[in-house]
Amino acid sequence: MNSVVVPVLGAIFNLNHASNVVHWHFIELSVSNVILIGTMFVVFALAIALPFPGAAARRRGGSS
Amino acid sequence: MSAKPAANGSHGPNRSWTGRVRKAAVDALPPEKLLPDGQPTYVASWIYVFGVASIASLAVIIGSGVILSLKGPAWWHDTGIGHFFNSVHLWAVELFFFAMVVHLWGKYWMAAWRGGRSRVWMTGAVTFLVAVPCALTGYVSQQNFDAQWIATQAKDAMNSVGVGAFFNLTNFGQMYSFHVLLLPLAVVALVTAHVLLVRRHGVVPPFAIQSTGEAAQALPELPEHPAVASAVQS
Q: What angle do CA A18, A20, A21 make, to 5 degrees?
């Protein structure tokens, strides 16, 4: 399994280089961490915006 | 020689430390608060999911960590199953911090310390602070060049703030003890206290909508959790 998967992933994601970083003044973050932090903001916004299953029924006094 | 049991089967009030502890525990957290049947309607929101997601991740961290510690710190280098559990452990930690940060943001913007919940907020914040070195000591427990590089770099940070004599990054045994016992014990104890305090005080309600457009005022002290739940659900 690994003998197939690893070379394929290695061809797509070439990690044989220095890490990519975002540098702004004194702030220096790896690209992967920037993506992760951005994803956290997106998930936070979605958690507030998206309706929770059954929430409307509970507010109307339906089954809890 | 034992005291004569009262009609309800107890041996009288406050006759022993176990009785006093039991009474204090039941007074602070009666069973209907400790294990409630339902939560207030406002809890039906995705933003309230991330606290329990953090706990679920922590359970996976502890489970995979126990297996890794039983097999030893070098096991994951030379076996496929060891590598698998090491990866489960790593990604559970990633999920734990992801969920905990979103949980922290949500609670910050809800001002979750309202209504006598300051200890709930503080135990959560301290849990986050203790979880960070708990995770970072894992990096120096890897038994590879990455661990050596991180240890020799991070020791300078510890020495610069004067704690290097007590927290020696180049001492693998000390770091491993911190990672597999002392700091996880602290995290689990803090999370337990945090959850019990949430049970006692109830989940913080959202801010009331202000029709006047003026700045929102903090909600007054709310009734205890089961009362809030029954009032909202009725």
A: 125
Nearest-CA distance B233 → chain A (Å): 7
- Determine if residue B207 is left, alpha or beta; phi over 0 gives left, psi from -120 to 50 gives alpha, anything else beta: beta
Token pair listed for B175 = 């770091």
Minimal Cα distance from A61: which residue of B?
A: B233
Global pTM? 0.81
Whole-angstrom distance, CA of residue B118 vs CA of residue B112:
8
CA distance A24 to chain B (A): 23
User: What tens digit of pLDDT does each residue of B99-122 get?
Assistant: 999 999 999 999 999 999 999 999
Q: Quick one: which of A8, A6, A12, A13 has its CA closest to A31?
A: A13
ipTM of the prediction greater than 0.90, yes or no: no
Largest CA distance in chain A: 59
